[in-house]
Amino acid sequence: MVERLRGFRDFYPEEQEIRSEIFRKMKDSCRQFGFKEIDGPSVENVELFANKSGMEIMNQMFSFKDKGGREVSLIPEFTPTLSRMVSARKDLVKPLKWFSVEKFWRYEEPQSGRTREFFQLNADILGSESYLADAEISSLAGHILKNLGIGNATKLKINSRILIDRLIQSYLPGKKEEVYYLLDRWNKLGEEEVGSYIEEKGIDKEIITSFSTGRILETMEDPELQKLNEIRDYVRSSEAIKVEIDLKIVRGIAYYTGFVMEASDLEEKFRSILGGGRYDNVVAQLGGESTPATGFAMGDAVLENILKAKGLWVQKKEGGIFLAPIDSAGRKYAIRVASTLRELGLGVDLNVMDRGISKQLDYASKMGYEYVVILGESEAKQESISLKNMTTGEQKEIELKNAKEILEKLR
RNA sequence: GCCGGGAUGGGGUAGCGGUGCAUCCUUGGGGACUGUGGAUCCCCGGACCCGGGUUCAAAUCCCGGUCCCGGCCCCA
Question: What are the residue ranges of helices labelled H in A202-248?
Fold first, then answer.
């Protein structure tokens, strides 16, 4: 048998059902915030990524030559496509509030919360330089997490590249790269490693610690900090999620120009569940008109980790109806009953096996149907159905006309 | 790309050099059952990841690969 490719996943019905429900919730939240859904190609010219993303991402792409000899790649992220779409249309009314849920591909070593093919929600606001856009984006992120049932299990951490750069310039000049590296890994490295890195690079321990704890901000007066405070208060007042300013959130991506954010589970047991920020130069870098932009992306893999840990990765009990004919008269009649009920918009499963009533009930039970409709010669004659409630085991014979009303409530 | 730990029917497992056709549960299909038996009983299908090697003998030991789980790098 041919095996599934490394790092790829199959989604069987039990799981796909959960997955669709989660995506539906995410999309609902976006729409409630006035965002419009978009979609793009899964394959793009590699140049689109070469421009912006740097070497690292180039090494992780599923790239190939198409039959026309073009170097193309499965998309590893959304921002380049988004920028291309924005640049191509000069008539778009700003600000744009767009979201998408798409598949992405990156050739990496699979591990917890990481696969080679994954889904990602992207939500962006383009055309606004205001911190209000950052606040709205953050608020949406919080709302989505709340809607997914993990608003209490996660927190949003926000920061500003501009702010941290100013701090570095005032207190640790010339050490930008080292400070970024250190803050980004502060919790991961642990005290000892942090200590030895500080010593090695000649960074003042007192100062860097006041960065990591945020103590430095207590006495600071700065317009960028002021904005950040307002974003924090904005999200706070939506009461969806915990939010705090954290100077340790720098995000690795080179193109962030100011505001950055990240969300994770409270204990930080998992990777960050979403990340994003302001990227005012990307659209222009890709050849478009200068367009300020802010947004975030949320992958499905870490989300799955967290939902499972919180016991929220569960199938909704859906019920449904199974039609079980027991003789040839019943089989003919069943087709009529099925289409009658389907007209009402009900989901109706009809036996397609050569089976007796016992095995049909067995099947219906295993599939989780709430009702079984038993149909035979007698029902066919009387235009009735025998309706069996699979939870209680109760069964009664009712006229088909009345059955409609009863079953319609199930929809 | 690098580093750990794994891999036995669809799922969960027992066996860890030879004594039983590779164990047990579950799942799947069928039969008894001819309108209530989602029960019970019975039958059937289905596996030692792949390729080399060591050995009289390999699921079992060794090497390589593949895949899985986890970590590093990186996280767009």
Answer: 205-213, 223-238
